[in-house]
Design goal:
Order of helices and strands of chain A: EEHHHEHHHHEHHH
Strand content of chain B: under 5%
Order of helices and strands of chain B: HHHHHHHHHHHH
Radius of gyration of chain A: 25 Å
Structural class of chain A: alpha+beta
Shape of chain A: elongated
Helix content of chain B: over 70%
Oligomer: heterodimer
Structural class of chain B: mainly alpha
Number of strands of chain A: 4
Chain lengths: 224, 317
């Protein structure tokens, strides 16, 4: 299966799979962060404007800190998330899966000034699409990735059905496909589920395809 | 073993791991001595589930748990501010030592170009107009003319200028570093551009007789501001050189190594930039005799030079 995954080798011998995020969710997260910064800077600006030039001076310092260090502080102190990334369920991690730390976060955010060239992250997006793990120049230099945390996915359950052994011996991949279908069927429309279930004709020849596959999946996972 | 049986037999263990992880992640767990063995067992369960072809959502759940456990065991302790400061203080001298050649090179290029631009603008009336446009030249002339308000101003104005210099100059420094990714050419261009701009302004103003005014104004903060740019350019050169001549590493690995080793230089430059901004906003505009300003300026330059020498001295250990 083609998937945008990055595999981490662990000392325990098992591979951990990170799902890398592409340009679109990252762009949306960036947009949300810009929006937040704009609102906060606007509010701060109007408050500071009361203090005349002194306030404006502080406002400029604040603008400087915001533009360069907003992402860094959030990424390091909040487990690799900025508010925008939190909304999109993304996380910045090192390539071994651990949340990003100060040196890497500072580096990837400093190099943001290169990724925005010539305008609007053109270079960054180009590099992202050429890299197998969707890394922009800042990520490449700092050794970081932006991944989907996937924490929100609910546990899929196969619906209740009397178990039925498949009439044909199935390979491991085929078993996985039947189980995956049974887990997903509740989230599909009725017509679509029936259409998909009708594909393995020898398997579902004797009745309602969807129901049969759900029963076979229940047997395959070992329900009694 | 079928999936349902597998899940039922392991669910106790997975619940225990969830509870431990929740505690560890909030720093509430005082006693987690069983965690490593539980984590190993979890990894075995994950490998088993993958091998047996169990459902994708189960594998995803186990993968998520294993990632969190992996972080607890191998992730560095949650970064706090103190390690950051300590790291900065120790890594800056190391970076200065490691990138001595690049630092000297960047400073040499910058001041050579600046001197050349100054000399040329002083002797050739029209040279300044090939670098700056006439509106800029006019505004600079008026800023340093007899009756200008550059010197003086109240505290609030000074605070505004302080903020402006921080926002403007340090951003330029950071960008100079980043542009070094383009084989160092970007940093070189920034150095040359700034050196030329500053040089022609100096030369032109000396030519029209405002030389003393501008020289006494910039000598103080220039001691910190100009080297800050050169330091960032040197860091940029390190980036470009790593990509171009990776030595025994792959280009990507070489880039990463150079980036992390040159990064403290950017921190140093930021610190110098803040000092320069403070000097430029609060010291330079003070209405003092030129000789005083030149004296203080010379002392500051000596201080910066001594600082570099001390930082860059090879350590016996």
């Amino acid at each position: 299966m083609i998937d945008t995954t990055h595999r981490v080798q662990t000392p325990e011998g098992v591979e951990l799979v990170l799902t890398v995020a592409g340009p679109a969710p990252r762009a949306i997260a960036m947009g949300i962060d810009w929006g937040i910064r704009l609102v906060v800077m606007g509010a701060a600006g109007s408050v500071l404007g009361i203090f005349g030039n002194l306030g404006r001076g502080w406002g400029l310092i604040l603008a400087f800190l915001f533009s360069w260090f907003y992402s860094v502080v959030f990424e390091v102190l909040w487990h690799g998330r900025t508010p925008g990334k939190q909304v999109m369920d993304l996380q910045v991690v090192h390539e071994d899966g651990t949340p990003v730390r100060w040196p890497a976060s500072l580096l990837r955010n400093f190099l943001r000034s290169v990724d925005v060239l010539p305008v609007g992250y053109c270079l960054g997006a180009l590099v992202m699409c050429m890299d197998s793990a969707f890394r922009r120049l800042g990520d490449l230099a700092a050794g970081t990735l932006v991944i989907h945390t996937g924490s929100a996915a609910p546990r899929a359950v196969i619906p209740d059905a009397a178990p039925l052994p498949p009439p044909i011996a199935l390979s491991l991949d085929e078993q996985r496909a039947v189980i995956a279908f049974a887990e997903r069927a509740a989230r599909l429309t009725g017509e679509r589920a029936r259409e998909l279930a009708a594909i393995p004709e020898p398997l579902v020849a004797g009745g309602d395809p969807r129901r049969l596959l759900e029963r076979m999946a229940a047997w395959l996972i070992g329900r009694t | 073993m079928r999936q349902e049986v597998f899940e039922r037999s392991r669910s106790e263990r997975w619940k225990r791991i969830e509870a431990l992880l929740a505690g560890l992640e909030r720093d509430l767990c005082a006693d987690a001595h069983e965690f490593p063995s539980l984590y190993r067992a979890l990894c075995q369960d994950l490998a088993l589930a993958r091998e047996r072809g169990f459902s994708a959502s189960l594998i995803q759940r186990l993968n998520g748990l294993a990632l969190r456990g992996h972080e607890q065991l191998y992730g560095v302790e949650k970064s706090r501010i103190r390690p950051l400061l300590a790291a900065l203080l120790s890594s800056v001298p190391r970076a200065v030592r490691a990138h001595r050649t690049a630092l000297v090179f960047a400073h040499a290029i910058f001041f050579a170009l600046m001197a050349a631009a100054t000399w040329h603008a002083y002797h050739d009336e029209s040279f300044v107009y090939s670098i700056l446009d006439s509106a800029d030249v006019a505004s600079v002339e008026s800023m340093y003319s007899e009756d200008s308000r550059t010197v003086g101003g109240d505290t609030d104005d000074r605070a505004l200028m302080f903020g402006f210099y921080i926002w403007n100059n340090i951003s330029i420094d950071f960008t100079t570093f980043g542009l070094g990714l383009f084989l160092g050419i970007g940093s070189m261009w920034m150095l040359a551009f700034n050196a030329a701009n500053i040089g022609v302004v100096l030369g032109h103003l000396f030519r029209v007789g405002s030389g003393d005014r501008i020289a006494s104004f910039v000598v103080g903060h220039g001691a910190f501001e100009l080297p800050a740019l050169c330091v960032c350019a040197a860091a940029g050169f390190a980036l470009g050189r790593a990509w171009n001549a990776p030595g025994r590493r792959s280009r990507l690995a070489s880039l990463r190594h150079a980036a992390l080793s040159a990064q403290p230089l950017v921190g140093l430059a930021a610190g110098m930039g803040v000092i320069a901004a403070a000097l430029e906003a609060f010291w330079s505009p003070l209405d003092l005799a030129s000789s005083v300003k030149y004296a203080v300026g010379a002392a500051l330059w000596a201080l910066v030079l001594a600082g570099f020498v001390v930082l860059g001295r090879a350590r016996a250990d």
